[in-house]
């Protein structure tokens, strides 16, 4: 839900309009933050599944999944 209680349509016209109103720099910042957030969530999941793995192993698995998918 949106901040005002309305439904948020992230894939539709409303989100496209939000992006059009942002500067190129703002859109890049959104992309970078989205990528960081995805990597943090992925790291947490991998560490939960493989608590014995080293930081290097976790980073390698994140890279593998990002570059090749999860399969």
What can you see in these coordinates?
There is one protein chain. This protein has 71 residues and is an all-alpha fold. Helix content is 69%, strand content 0%. The chain is built from 3 helices and no strands. Helix 2 (24-49) packs across helix 3. It is elongated, with a radius of gyration of 17 Å. The chain starts with 12 loop residues before the first helix and ends with a helix.
Key traits:
mainly alpha, 71 residues, 0% strand
DSSP strand content:
under 5%
Task: Give the proportion of residues in helices.
Answer: 55-70%
Shape: elongated
Question: Termini separation (Å)?
Answer: 32 Å
DSSP strand tally: 0
Tally of separate helices: 3
Question: What is the H/E string?
Answer: HHH
Rg over CA atoms, rounded to whole Å, is 17 Å
Major sheet size, sense and barrel closure: none
Poorly predicted runs of 5 or more residues: none
- Indicate the structural class: mainly alpha
What's the topology here?
Blueprint: H1 13-21, H2 24-49, H3 55-68
Helix pairs in contact: 2-3
Sum this structure up briefly:
With 71 residues, this protein is mainly alpha-helical. It has 3 helices and no strands.
């Amino acid at each position: 839900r949106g901040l005002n209680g309305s439904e948020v349509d992230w894939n539709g016209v409303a989100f496209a309009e939000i992006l059009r109103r942002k500067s190129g720099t703002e859109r890049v910042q959104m992309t970078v933050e989205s990528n960081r957030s995805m990597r943090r969530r992925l790291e947490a999941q991998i560490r939960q599944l493989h608590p014995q793995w080293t930081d290097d192993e976790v980073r390698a698995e994140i890279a593998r999944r990002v570059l090749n998918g999860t399969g």
